[in-house]
Amino acid sequence: MWIVAVALFWLGVTIAGGYLGWTSRTLALFDLAALAGFGWALWMGFNIWRARQKDKG
Questions:
Q1: Sign of the C-alpha dihedral, residues 17, 23, 24, 29?
Q2: Which of 10, 13, 19, 39 could potentially form a cystine with 34 if both were Cys, beta carbons 3.0 to 4.6 Å apart?
Q3: What is residue 21's DSSP assignment?
């Protein structure tokens, strides 16, 4: 769910920025925010996987 939300946010901001004429610098800020969101999702997924592996043992 989080990954889908971040992807939709990023797409929406990219489209809105194109229509509103935002600078590349502003769009890059939102790109970095989306990258951080994806990174956080990857980290949480890894932690969930590790917790499940620990419970099996």
A1: negative
A2: 10
A3: T
